[in-house]
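User: I'll paste a sequence; please echo it back and then give the predicted structure.

Assistant: Echoing your sequence first, then the prediction.
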Amino acid sequence: MITSKKLTAERIAQIEQVPIVYDEDSPQFTQEELQEFVPYHKEYYDITPKKVLISFNIDADILAMMRATGKGYQTRMNKCLREAVLSGRF
């Protein structure tokens, strides 16, 4: 049976210390090459994501700035999160 270690801050630090090894089976790609990647089955890729209602705490100043942008701020918050995840900044 395989048991995994909990992903703690210490475990993340350990993982970050392991060097990335590139070879012919796993080459390093440039950002331009990564942008050329497309899903193999596009019919499963271009679907509208299901919205899920959640509740979480957010810094008051961030919420105030988002609300100040007007109606639709929650949609814009979702867009910011999506862009961060898809670009690898998250």
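DSSP finds five helices and no strands in the chain. The chain has a mean pLDDT of 86.
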